[in-house]
Design a protein that fits this description.
The complex is a heterodimer of chains A (191) and B (548).
Chain A: H1 2-25, H2 32-40, H3 54-63, H4 75-86, E1 105-109, H5 119-123, E2 129-130, E3 138-139, E4 159-163, H6 186-190
Antiparallel strand pairs in A: 1-4, 2-3
Helix pairs in contact in A: 2-3
Chain B: E1 27-28, E2 34-38, E3 48-49, E4 56-57, E5 62-65, E6 74-75, E7 80-89, E8 97-105, H1 125-134, H2 147-150, E9 161-166, H3 175-182, H4 184-198, E10 202-208, H5 212-223, E11 230-235, H6 244-252, E12 267-271, H7 272-284, E13 290-296, E14 304-309, H8 314-320, E15 328-333, E16 340-341, E17 355-360, H9 377-381, H10 388-396, H11 400-405, H12 416-420, H13 427-514, H14 522-547
Parallel strand pairs in B: 1-14, 9-10, 9-12, 10-11, 13-17
Antiparallel strand pairs in B: 2-8, 3-5, 4-7, 5-6, 7-8, 13-14, 15-16, 15-17
Helix pairs in contact in B: 3-5, 4-7, 10-13
Classes of the chains: A mainly alpha (191), B alpha/beta (548).
Chain lengths: 191, 548
Amino acid sequence: MLTAILVLTVLALLFGLLLGYASVRYKVEGDPIVDQIDAILPQTQCGQCGYPGCRPYAEAIAKGEAEINRCPPGGETVIVQLADLLGREPIPLDAERGEAKDTPTVVEIDENLCIGCTLCIQACPVDAILGAPKQMHTILKAECTGCNLCIPPCPVDCIRIVPVEEDISTWRWPEPKIDLEQPVDVAEETA
Amino acid sequence: MRRRLWHFHGGLHLEGHKDLSMHEPVAAAPLPARIVLPLAQHIGAPAEPEVKVGEKVRKGQRIARATEYVSAPIHASTSGTVVAIEEQPVPHPSGLSAPCIVIEADGQDEWIERQPVADYENLDPSALRNVIREAGIVGLGGAGFPSFIKLNPGPDKVVDLLILNGAECEPYITCDAMLMQEHPRRIIDGLLIMRHALRAKRCIIAIEDNKKVAHTVLVNALQEHEAEFIEIVQVPTVYPTGGEKQLIKVLTGKEVPSNGLPIDIGMVCHNVATAAAVHDAIAEGTPLIERIVTVTGEALDRPRNLTVRIGTPFSLLLEAGQWRETDTDEVLMGGPMMGFAVPDLDVPVVKTTNCLLARPRSQPHRQPAMPCIRCGQCARVCPAQLLPQQLYWYAHARNFDRIQDYHLFDCIECGCCAYVCPSHIPLVQYYRFAKTEIWAQERQKQKADRARQRHEWHLERLERRKREEEERRRRKKELLKKSKAAGGDAAKKAEIEAALARVKAKKASRQAARANTENLTDAQKQAIAAVEARRQRLQKGGDSGDSQ
């Protein structure tokens, strides 16, 4: 009887120590699920989801505070990927948050109109606008995420949305369009 | 002695249609009035223009330099004036435009001074590679990869076998066959130069057994050299033997690993036309400014091979082949299996243009697609041993993760699967679509990662600025406290007075500097004195007036 208690106590202590050591040794910094969600989000940083950037939205999703359908730039692709990751059902995009974009866009400053007020620079979440007070501003198109946050603060409305230009290096083969549902009229074919 | 040969998986026996364009010897194409030279004719970074609009250039002059390691320079293919550096339509399935240098030919065709390398055998391989790089030579078989890179095995790699690819397996195309027939010495000399650069142990020139003349001519030419390390091998005519991995399998029985290169198994493979270009660059100092192009198809009355300056418009070549425009359904760049339709026929010949194929309307080649019946024909003929059917399903479903599990990127787009498909499904189009779609997703992912990083930096910067502002305020407050503790109001007063004194001293010094009253004549001194006296009088009068 005593031996049994002793053995079990020793075992309990041993496993306790092992678990304690493991929890210190293999401690995970941060919340890995947030990183995974953040990796799926398009990083537009547009705030259309109602959170100040993609990471805060990722955190809200991880906590279960937000639905997965609040990201218009990501559209259906992101919703499906998030649903896959979180084991939820894909749901349609929340229409209140905006419409999904078909083609990627960036913004462009009409440099004849710009008065150099720097308001757009302060609004840009990825520092993609170059300029100084009373100097003409310009957009670094390669860095622009197309969030359009710079448009409302502009006092002279000199910023406009343009589609991302396609060149040979970014061109994609179109998906072959074949209508498999249509029955083929064999008589006509052979005629 | 007959060499043992192996087989690759699948493949097709296709009707060659090669006789069509082999009745005439290779002729020089006419000199066009305008030459259009795209800056990106190769795999890698586009070249950077070195000339300005209005500048006169001579034939063979470098007009755009390579900017990165994987890149190639561009040379003027005739003498004339640069009239524009702008976007022009280029031969590409997208039909899009790309930056080009446009030269108006002056008709003189005046060469620059060429500097041949007299004795390449005493030249260091790296110097040799540099000459080849400067000559703008890229793989002429179709891919357009800069050749000097493929002539650099790397420090710790030994090249057992250098293969010259003269298989030319695609129907209709005969430019390599004609080159081998007419210029065997250039090819063999080019091979010797390449062998020197690679320090290769053995060399093989591989020719499909339907090119009997080319084989005989090359064998005869080789007898003049004492080069027992070179072997000329006839390989069976099976499409696509000309594929690099397939040819290596046929010749050696070895397989290039997936995602690997032939150099990983000690082999290097170059096209015969590339070897000829290497010979021209070393022995003549000629950069790559022309190539042989097959102009063929049933919609031509005089299909033939032409030596064409890079930059010549397609339409001029079709004219030289007596093209029946009204009878033409479409014009392909490349062969019927791997080529693509070119909508705009004013696009220029580039370094990788091996064939123009004009297809007549009378030859229907596209039939409506029907559902897949899972017959498995495609898998039987796939030379890359893939499962085309599975790839098709996943491309159709846009499941781009799964499609990569089925090794989409090992597909060489040879078109065998689509050729045998009884349902006429455009399979290769699906694979091309999936590949470019995956690349686009990767680009998007990279852009998202950069945006995330930049946003983090942005937040960090805002945070830092806030901290600095707080720090500044805190320090000011501390300073104020210190000054109060040191002497209260008296100290402040003293400070203000010191500041006032500083201002006064500055003012005085400025006035002193302004007074240019030295070296004056007597008359001027008198005038000044009179003015001063009047001013004093007035001031006195004013003062007295005020006090009254």
